[in-house]
Design brief:
The strands form 2 sheets. The protein has an 8-stranded mixed beta sheet, sandwiched between helices. It contains 16 helices and 14 strands. It is globular. About 40% of the residues lie in helices and about 20% in strands. The protein is α/β, with parallel strands linked by helices.
Length: about 400
């Protein structure tokens, strides 16, 4: 290794059947190693590990998250990164839902794990998996500080008018019902990068950020702080996504229960796993969607049009809500890699100062870049997100503060 292990932070993003990870230096942003464990609990599990310019793969059954983390540590050792023997500065965990309880990066102890577990009622697909990763990492690295970084934290201080749903206030209070927002680590990181790229103080900027991946969200930021976002109590609200419906008439749910005789779990599966682009076209990969459109598939064309329509609707709403705009930024898999989506989302908006330069938009550059004409009043950018780096920096800061406070 070029640096001591104690300078590095291990970032873990634990899903229900996968663990994504990176070992990186928060100061230089250099990644020492990364990879993914997939299909945990299935016979065809695998780990893919990247280090020193090489990729290694190992197939086989992975019983649980602890077994998955042991595989990760073995892969690190095989490439010269002995996490147990040499130690790391901290482990940073992505946790999806912090509810009203957690809105800052938090040092993990037993009470924190219990609270995150209790919040699973708000994120039943995500928080239990996050806890599994935390518990496994604590078992295997018992002496290393572990820090939880919450997807919802950036949006904790949304204005009351933006975060409040118009339902019975007592019911909402009793069950924690409010707009929480998600992808917050990404939105916070990207908004900061936008300010750096423009050479502006974030406090001077009005921004709209589109985080477009298989999950998708948008945010409106004034003075560096969010004033609205598309995702709500759960990540289901808002934009059309790969497999999620996004916004719909709430009356659809009781209608499906009564008319289609679906139970609540079946409705939940329908809206989260079998809707969105997949529900309309049969595929949820944007590259495959484009191929279907080019072949003349009308269902794929409609899916794309619905997707773009929803993007433009929120763009217009946020433009009015902000009262003026300095920058629009696209990030995440689709946002970074689909010139067509960017061009169609912002088409014919010159009267609002929003334009896309066709040459800049279709350039092969994969770094942070401006894709609007220099003369356009609103700057349009593509900025690759880096949630792992943001989590690593947050974890390092928590540990540094802890060390500073110790006598």
């Amino acid at each position: 290794m070029s640096k001591a292990a104690e300078d590095l932070v291990l970032v873990i993003n634990s899903g229900s059947s996968s663990i994504k990870y990176q070992l990186l230096d928060p100061e230089s942003s250099v990644v020492a190693a990364s990879g993914i464990v997939e299909r945990i609990g299935e016979d065809d599990g695998r780990i893919e590990h990247h280090a020193d310019g090489e990729t290694t793969e190992r197939p086989g059954r992975i019983a649980d998250h602890t077994a998955g983390l042991r595989l990760i540590f073995d892969a690190f050792s095989a490439t010269g990164h002995d996490l147990v023997g040499e130690g790391v500065r901290a482990v940073g965990h992505r946790v999806v839902h912090g509810g009203e309880v957690f809105y800052q990066p938090t040092l993990i102890d037993d009470a924190v794990v219990a609270a995150i577990t209790d919040l699973s009622v708000l994120a039943p697909l995500h928080n239990p998996a996050n806890v599994a990763g935390i518990e496994s990492a604590r078992e295997l690295l018992p002496g290393v500080p572990q820090v939880a970084v919450f997807d919802t934290a950036f949006f904790h201080s949304l204005p009351a008018a933006a975060k409040t749903y118009a339902i019975d206030a007592k019911v909402a209070a009793a069950h924690g019902i409010r707009k929480y927002g998600f992808h917050g680590t990404s939105h916070e990181y990207v908004s900061g990068r936008v300010a750096e790229l423009l050479g502006r103080d974030p406090a001077e900027l009005n921004q709209i950020i589109f985080h477009l991946g298989n999950g998708a969200s948008a945010s409106a930021l004034r003075g560096g702080r969010p004033i609205d976002t598309t995702m709500g109590l759960t990540p289901l609200e808002g934009l059309v996504m790969g497999t999620r419906s996004g916004d719909l008439d709430p009356g659809i749910v009781p209608h499906l229960v009564r008319s289609a005789h679906l139970d609540i779990d079946q409705v939940d599966t329908l809206l989260n796993r079998d809707s969105g682009i997949k529900g309309l076209s049969g595929v949820n990969d944007f590259r495959e969607l484009r191929r279907l459109i080019e072949s003349g598939d009308q269902a794929a064309r409609l899916a794309y049009d619905v997707y773009i329509h929803r993007l433009r609707r929120y763009l217009g709403a946020y433009l009015i809500e902000l009262g003026g705009l300095d920058a629009i930024t696209f990030t995440a898999g689709v946002g970074e890699n689909s010139p067509q989506v960017r061009a169609d989302a912002l088409a014919d908006l010159g009267r609002f100062g929003i334009e896309v330069d066709p040459v800049a938009n279709t350039a092969k550059d994969r770094g942070a870049r401006r894709i609007s004409p220099p003369s356009a009043p609103v700057t349009v950018l593509v900025v690759p997100t880096n949630e792992e780096l943001a989590i690593a920096r947050a974890a390092r800061q928590v540990v540094a503060d802890l060390e500073h406070d110790q006598p």
